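Here we describe the complex-level prediction in full. Unlike the single-chain runs in Section 2.1, the two entities below were treated as one system.
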Amino acid sequence: MGTWDNSMDQSDPFESALSSMVSSPAASNVPVSGENVMMRELIGKLGNICSSGDASCYTTPLNSPPRFDLSMVNLPNRSSLAAPFSADPGFAERAARFSCFSSSGNSGGFNDPLMDSFKLSGNQPINVDGSQSNKNSGSDKKNSGVSRSSSPENAESGVSKDESSVFQQIQSQNDAGTRKRKSTPREKPKEIPSPAADDAKVASENEESNSKRSRRNGAPAGNGNAKGSNDGNEKQRKENSKLLEPPKDYIHVRARRGQATDSHSLAERVRREKISERMKFLQDLVPGCNKVTGKAVMLDEIINYVQSLQRQVEFLSMKLATVNPRMDVNMEALLSKDMFQSRGQLPHGIYSIDSSPAFPYGYQPQQGLLPLTNGIPNTTETPFSMKTQGFLLPSVDGFTDAHPQVGPMWEDDLQSIVQMGFAQNQPQSYQGSIPTGQVKLEL
Amino acid sequence: MDLQNLNPSSLKSRFTARFLRALTEINAPKTISSSSPREIFQRYRRIKVAADKSMAYSVRSRRIWSRATLWRLRTRSRSRRLVSFGRRASVKTRTTASHGKENKEHHGAVLGVQAEELRELVPGGEAMDLCNLLDETAHYIKCLTTQVQVMRTIANLYSIE
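The structure predicted for the assembly as a whole is:
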């Protein structure tokens, strides 16, 4: 009764209820069957305490009274339960440990002196329930179904286990949950593999990250955790070979040998790889950059190229401004031909140009219609033939050095095609009223 | 046959369509070709704006630089001198802030100088980190080459007389 009184002193609501509970069984030496009834009674009363008592400690959503009943009913070892029951001193403590277990999985909010006294006392079958409820709570965030399904067998085995083993189970379940959780982010960003990755070399990184994780996860489960967490981490290390901080959505990268493995340098490395990847791509884009190596020179080249392109655009727009614009529709048709030509190949349909105003180029694009005909003045009777002669294009300017392969191709093909097209179209007089539906561009 | 050519909704076709439309708008009002430099200059500016605008619209604000270009054009059209001045001033301050070129080159961020220059060139590049900047630069280069091609062709066509 001494310990009983001590524990009782520490929480008042507990005291009154427990006294009532304890007194009743102590008074009657009940047979085994009766004990069950009284156990249920007790549990029910405990549940009442929980529901009516301080919400923070006792009434977590997992601590519903009915669950207490069920857990007690499912107990295989009722006689063993009855034993401490009749030896009432430790009963209240163990009974209260229910709530301790369930709340400890959540947030360790139950850091009361009650907890200490409970831990001190020996483990008995109440662990079954505690473990069950605790497992449910601990894995509630992750895969609660697993825990509930496994709880029956845990209930069986939990009878003889002690407290540390219970915690170990919890921890391993936590780890299993985290393992499951981590596996999904692991699959996702695999697009950044390090070329020189080596699985064995990751051990150091994993140790570090695992140790960080165990430090974080170790807090809620209490002090019996160290062994359990290490075991869990061992398993994890073997299974997952690339892990970073699990709860965050990082890109997972393998640490290379001899390189720092903290998160900052890893992120740095990812960045650098991205940048070099893009530099390579740019190298393909910018002509004449294949021999150049080194980021600085590459960037200089890129800058020069962009500047030259922008200057070309300005020059061409100036040219367009100065050129006397003859908005012939045929120009746009020519344009489409030129667009065909810009890759240097003749389209099939070019030879099927007939005398109809439409230019069926053999392609039926849905889009790309030139609505030019609307804005085109109808007075453009300029004979097309005039254009044929002058159609030999000189290369435009000095900028073609940037596109040496494109220019000549244009001119040769343009000549042939345009002459053909123009020859056919000469007899017509273009009113500039080519129906829009028939002018189709294939670009 | 290069399939890219046949794509009716490719960047090139979109840009060409828009640009030609804009060109006709610009050129339509004047039935007589004026040769005064001032008008030519004005037309040049309008054409340049039209080119940039049509390219940006063809990209359809999928890219940061196109959005920046469109924004710039819009704000310029509203309050011309003020905004562009302000933007240029801001850009200039940034460049003057990074004027220690040699220092930057030898620092850890080796690419600091060129990155700054690139940021000036690519519209909207001021707010991007290097990674995205390179991305945008690649797309910007591609669009610029398309633009140059089309404009050159058009210019050639126009210059046939």
